[in-house]
């Protein structure tokens, strides 16, 4: 498994507090089957943009410490970038600063205030500059989840979708669990990430998530092995290869059970 979304760098955002915590988080990752992890600290949150040099230096320090601790995991630099007009200032054409593992892929986060038409225009501008956008934890955006036709049109335009593995377990509530189950049924999950922030909550441990995926696959009679497929997709990021996922033409709604058909709720 390749974890493309994590807050493992120490003391740079609201994630890991220090190097000890970082190493514990990496240990959790490794025991849950993660072989590669991309550090994606928050960038442009509240207007704060840490320098790319700082992110790269911290990533190198963490990689070195993990090697000394004999942790079997590869660590790459990246960022989770809050999307607003400011991104056009620091995401420059021809530079892969703030991208995932030195590739053209960028992990973008929307806010509650984001308007989907404005976000789409900004993302298009970034695509013109050569970036390949990945939308972080898409299940959180009500505006998009309520209009899956928009989501499908975005995916057809090359916007890739990442879900948090904790959403499949119900850790972030039933509502988000429903959203990821809908996305999975529609083959609209391209990447998984832990979005791990700490060791005691919102961790980098993916084992429960892996179990939840297996159960869901059986429940939905879904042929898609999401753990495997998202790992293969993520390896394209690490190898700087383009990903063209199959995107459905329409959104399949969940079939209602007998009780719901009879009584409507
Ligand atoms: Fe995150």
UniProtKB/TrEMBL annotation:
Family of this protein:
Belongs to the metallo-dependent hydrolases superfamily. CpsB/CapC family.
Q: Name the EC number(s).
A: 3.1.3.48
The protein's UniProt keywords, in alphabetical order, are:
Hydrolase, Protein phosphatase
**MF terms in GO:** manganese ion binding; protein tyrosine phosphatase activity
- Print the organism lineage: Bacteria, Bacillati, Bacillota, Negativicutes, Veillonellales
Q: What is this protein called?
A: protein-tyrosine-phosphatase
Enzyme class, first EC level, given as a word: hydrolase
Q: Which reaction does it catalyse?
A: O-phospho-L-tyrosyl-[protein] + H2O = L-tyrosyl-[protein] + phosphate
Record has Hydrolase as a keyword: yes
Asked if the keyword Protease belongs to this entry, the reply reads no
- Tell me which InterPro entries the record gives: Caps_polysacc_synth_CpsB/CapC, Pol/histidinol_Pase-like
């Amino acid at each position: 498994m390749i974890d493309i979304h994590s807050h493992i760098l120490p003391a740079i955002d609201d994630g890991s507090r220090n190097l000890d915590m970082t190493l514990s988080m990496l240990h959790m990752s490794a025991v849950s089957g993660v072989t590669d992890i991309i550090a994606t600290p928050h960038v442009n949150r509240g207007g704060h943009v840490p320098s790319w040099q700082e992110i790269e230096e911290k990533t190198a320090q963490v990689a070195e410490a993990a090697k000394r601790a004999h942790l079997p995991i590869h660590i790459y630099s990246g960022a989770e970038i809050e999307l607003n007009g400011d991104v056009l200032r620091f995401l420059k054409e021809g530079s892969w600063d703030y991208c995932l593992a030195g590739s053209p892929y960028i992990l973008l986060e929307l806010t509650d205030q984001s308007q989907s038409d404005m976000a789409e225009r900004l993302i298009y501008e970034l695509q013109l500059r050569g970036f390949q956008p990945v939308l972080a934890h898409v299940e959180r955006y009500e505006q998009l989840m309520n209009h899956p036709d928009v989501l499908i049109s975005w995916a057809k335009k090359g916007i890739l979708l990442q879900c948090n593995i904790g959403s499949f377990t119900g850790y972030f509530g039933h509502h988000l669990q429903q959203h990821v189950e809908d996305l999975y049924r529609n083959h609209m999950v391209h990447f998984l990430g832990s979005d791990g922030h700490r060791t005691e909550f919102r961790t980098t441990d993916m084992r429960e998530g892996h179990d939840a995926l297996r159960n869901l696959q059986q429940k939905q009679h879904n042929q898609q092995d999401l753990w495997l497929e998202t790992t293969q997709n993520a390896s394209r990021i690490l190898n700087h290869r383009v990903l063209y996922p199959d995107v459905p033409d329409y959104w399949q709604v969940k079939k209602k059970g007998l009780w719901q058909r009879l009584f409507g709720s």
